[in-house]
């Protein structure tokens, strides 16, 4: 390795270490709040149908999956728009070094959770197990960013991961729920509890924080 190449390699390492000292909020608090509201509205609709019919709502076929994919798409687009506005305010590109690090960290668990969850619904018709996989993998994705994320996002990751494990244990130990003729109702309620209430609590905690959303210093 030449002297010039050696110097460039040292600069690359130093830059990498400096990047890891920064924090990056991959999930905008307003987008999390919007996702929470939509998730609670969808779960609330299912709960209202259960109350009206005195039990489980009618089997919905692929409606359950498409309903939550649409909520994911809407929330994702809003999140990207808000991140782009924040990046523009700081005079940085949307695809910054922080975003690249975040994508590298969250994509593996999100890919695994997405494929397994959709497969469980499409091929095994197991909605509760699918949403539990989504909850745990989403929590693991947030925890994968722990080295450069604000503490509020790391706490959210722990809440999703632990809550997903507790709910899985409760579901596995309850034969009445596992033997239901169809499980869209319980699955929707889990989505409302986790992606709904947890995201609303996260957004509220960020808004109520006395410190502004930092991008170059720890909260």
UniProtKB/TrEMBL annotation:
What UniProt keywords are attached to this protein's entry?
Answer: Membrane, Transmembrane, Transmembrane helix
Q: Which residues cross the membrane?
A: 21-45, 65-84, 105-122, 128-146, 153-172, 187-208
Question: What highest taxon heads this organism's lineage?
Answer: Bacteria
What is the designated name of this protein?
Uncharacterized protein
Organism field: Prosthecobacter fusiformis
């Amino acid at each position: 390795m030449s002297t010039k190449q050696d110097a460039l390699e040292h600069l690359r390492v130093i830059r990498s270490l400096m990047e890891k000292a920064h924090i990056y909020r991959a999930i905008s608090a307003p987008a999390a709040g919007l996702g929470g509201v939509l998730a609670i509205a969808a779960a609330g609709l299912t709960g209202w149908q259960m109350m009206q019919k005195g039990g489980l709502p009618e089997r919905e076929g692929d409606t359950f999956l498409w309903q939550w994919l649409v909520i994911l798409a809407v929330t994702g687009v809003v999140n990207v728009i808000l991140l782009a506005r924040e990046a523009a305010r700081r005079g940085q590109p949307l695809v910054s070094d922080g975003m690249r690090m975040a994508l590298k960290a969250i994509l593996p668990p999100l890919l695994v959770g997405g494929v397994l969850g959709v497969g469980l619904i499409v091929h095994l018709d197991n909605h509760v197990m699918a949403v539990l996989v989504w909850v745990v993998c989403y929590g693991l994705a947030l925890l994968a960013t722990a080295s450069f994320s604000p503490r509020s996002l790391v706490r959210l990751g722990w809440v999703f991961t632990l809550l997903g494990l507790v709910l899985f244990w409760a579901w596995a130990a309850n034969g009445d729920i596992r033997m239901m003729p169809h499980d869209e109702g319980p699955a929707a309620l889990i989505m409302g509890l986790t992606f709904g209430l947890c995201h609303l609590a996260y957004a509220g905690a960020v808004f109520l924080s006395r410190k502004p959303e930092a991008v170059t210093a720890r909260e």
